[in-house]
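Observation: inputs received (chain + acetoacetyl-coenzyme A).
Thought: call the complex predictor directly.
Action: predict_structure
Action Input:
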Amino acid sequence: MTRINEIVTLARQGNVSVVTLNNPPVNALSHALREGLLNAIAHAGRDKESAAIVIVCEGQTFVAGADITEFGKPPKDPRINAVISAIEESPKPVVAAMHGTVLGGGLELALGCHYRIAVPSARFGFPEVNLGIIPGAGGTQRLPRIVGVERAIEMITSASQISAAQAREAGLLDEVVLGELLAGALAFAQKLVTENRPLKRVRDRDEMLKPVRGNTELFAKARQSVGRKARGLKAPLAAIDAIEAAVNLPFEQALQREREIIMAQVGSDQSKALRYFFFAEREAAKIPGVDTSNQPKVMQAAVIGAGTMGGGIAMSFANAGIAVTLIDVSEQALEKGIGIIQKNYENTAKRGGMSEADVGKRMGLITPSTKLADVAGAEVIVEAVFENTQLKKTVFAEIDRHAQPGAILGTNTSTLDIDDIASATKRPESVIGLHFFSPANVMKLLEVVRTGKTAPAIVARSMALGRQMRKVPVLVGTCDGFVGNRILRARSKQAEQIIMYGGFPHQVDGVLQEFGFPMGVFAMGDMAGLDIGWRIRQERGLKSPVADALCEMGRLGQKTGAGYYRYDPQNPAGARTPIVDPMVNELIVKASNDAGIERKEMNNDLVRERLLYPMINEAAKILEEGVALRASDIDVIWIYGYGWPRYRGGPMHYADAIGLRAVRDRLREFEREFGEAFKPAALLDRLADEDKTFAEYTAEVKAGAAKLESAAA
Ligand code: CAA
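Observation:
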């Protein structure tokens, strides 16, 4: 065996050279890997005893893409294209022998090989648009030559993955290896030794492109449908440009075009935000002082409360293959809850989202019960009863009597004091907030709320459980509203103010949608039902002139056919599409007059800043209080829980990109004009003065904590 460098080795087995890449964790195409691979191919080329070359990877996966940490830095030769080109030009056949997730640059590398084989569990895809770029090493050029233009557009613009069986069927794979991969690869390579020359190169294939050459309609249609789905994300449309170039230009020229497109994208704000978010999401899993890895899998759960949230949470457990006892003291409520779950699954099956057998399997994992004592077998218990402290405390006292030692005692409260709830038990160290988002079976975000007493082992297990449930768990501390809803409240307050001072619901919602949110504040209120907020305001003695007036009129939102907007079941655009209602605008103007407010027209920039900057300000307070561990966690929460557009990186990254000084100065202007509510948070003020970012602040806090830890050690 020859060691080419620290991560690439070359060995010969009979007359086949085996290049092995070992660049954990995902064999990303780092500079060292590219250099080592290029050298290994050259070595193997010179080896007279070698008649074919196999590229194989150690670890969890074949190459899963370019090294994202190198993006935005000065490129270092050899570039990926040069390595792929050397492989493609090799006079000896090169075989990519693949396992794991073959993504992005990894798949492009494979497309440069003369043959591709893989184990049945391997998956293939181009996730680049999720990073705000297109495949930039020939992926937009070679993929359509194999799978056809329409399928390539679909795969690249949606970032979807396909299985080995699908890849074989599409012609992307030459063989699916059923036994051991390397043995299969050697046997496959053996057959190539006597293969006719010249070798087949993907770049030379034209049969899939020829029929659509000059077909502008195909691309126009694709742009229309992809543009609709992309909702402001630019990369998918740019990918279509590159694929169109593949169809209509000679290979080298089209490859150059692909290069120009990706180079422009790497420096774009969208790509910077998306790359930031890629790492932010992974960072959220890491909790200082708590090892969340190697946690035992949860096999048995219990959910208390068979209402909308409880039902959705039970489905989330079943979806992850975890057996769950769904408990409700009312037989009737339980029956209704189980019925809704069954219907939800059946609807999914009808839409083709799962098989009938799957419906049976998941329903089989859910056991209804009316006895709280049935929490006894569960490793995790999630209470999801009505938001009332006394009720929850009664439930927790009962849980405490039956739950096994070490069980996670979770509450799904979104508003109540978890310490208070925990005080009903003799084991407050086992109590934690597990704040799911509605619909719980769909939404990815899970706020894991640690109290001052929660044991590290319970935190670790809860975070691991979140991942087991295929959610995105983010650890937060206790405060009113936790992280997500506390920031949401800041925005809602502004939205209400804006309509009192000159704006209208459709303007506010339009601005948010233009920014990239799937829905505006008022349309969302209509969807959730305006009576929820009305009830809470009544309990707390609060008023909201417009919302209260709408509720008093029976306009509770979509469910009553009207709220801030009107809804028409016959509307060709859809029964849930909001229709602006002049009556509501009149009601708003009247409310302003009654309050003695002189309405002034607001432009969209002002509306956007008044909505978003107070959110950033609230987030700064949250960060300063330590309720969030880092700025990026707040971004993960807002992207996964509240529809903040990914390509804007979340509120903290957005603020960093604008510059904290500019945000702080604008808040000060608002404070002068509209009052105390806009007063910049102390942390924001300080960072603005120091010309620092929230990301830098988080890094400083992290470095400080590490220093303390090593000093203590
Ligand atoms: N570059 C650098 N680091 C990467 C990486 C990449 N492409 N992919 C993953 N990592 C890192 C992660 O940051 C993480 O690091 P930490 O442990 O320090 O947090 C570690 O590898 C493991 O990643 P995951 O936690 O995500 O592991 P997983 O097993 O859950 O998933 C995966 C593995 C499916 C490969 C997933 O990591 C993934 O989707 N990676 C990104 C793949 C991608 O986007 N590839 C395209 C890159 S762009 C490109 O290739 C452009 C081109 O055209 C040349």
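Thought: report the result.
Final Answer: Residues 604-625 form the longest helix (22 residues). The radius of gyration is 28 Å.
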